[in-house]
Amino acid sequence: MASELPDYYFRVRENGALVFRIDTENRQRRIDMDQIAVVNIRNGEIKAHGDRTLSAEDRAVIEDWIADRRAVLAEREIDDILRAVDHLNLTTQWVQSRATDEELEIVTDALLLAMHDLRSTLVRKKAERLMRERGEGD
């Protein structure tokens, strides 16, 4: 092969991943993927698959993957929120320039309630941060 395969493969799933050890050193020169663990990204739990015992190297690689994956997901979350801000701006432009009365009737109540909920939560969280900052500065 042009490039060497990694020793581990992580099949991402909603709350973590299935972890496989990659083996190409066999008689048929096939790629064998042997599941060794299941990872829960939320609580960091690592469960060996079946009756396996994970080596220190296995655990270190998995823990590094968990840290990297959490960082990627955190970046994506912020990016998603910034995209939502863009989408709100596009929605405002649509409302102002192209929306028909019938379309506005369909979306207005849902948008107003969602925006009211978001605004209330943002204001409350900002007030909490300001109170903490003032309390720490005294």
For the structure shown, list the relevant keywords.
138 residues; alpha+beta; 2 helices; 4 strands
Write the layout of secondary structure elements.
Layout: E1 8-13, E2 16-23, E3 32-40, E4 46-48, H1 56-97, H2 101-137
Antiparallel strand pairs: 1-2, 2-3, 3-4
In brief, what are we looking at here?
The chain has 138 residues and is α+β, with helices and mostly antiparallel strands. Helices cover 57% and strands 19% of the residues.
What do you see in this structure?
With 138 residues, the protein is α+β, with helices and mostly antiparallel strands. It has a domain of 80 residues. Helices cover 57% and strands 19% of the residues. It is built from two helices and four strands; from the N terminus they run ββββαα. The longest helix is centred in the middle third of the chain and has 42 residues. It is elongated and about 70 Å long.
Query: What general form does the structure show?
Result: elongated
Strand order of the largest sheet: 1-2-3-4
The value of Rg in angstroms is: 24 Å
Largest beta-sheet details: 4 strands, antiparallel
Give me the oligomer status.
single chain
Average pLDDT level: 93
Q: Say how many strands there are.
A: 4
- Summarize the amount of helix as a percent range: 55-70%
User: What class do helices, strands and sheet pairing give?
Assistant: alpha+beta
User: What proportion of the residues form beta strands (DSSP E)?
Assistant: 15-25%
| Termini Cα gap | 64 Å
The sequence of SSEs as H and E is EEEEHH
Give start-end ranges of low-pLDDT stretches.
none
Tally of helical runs: 2
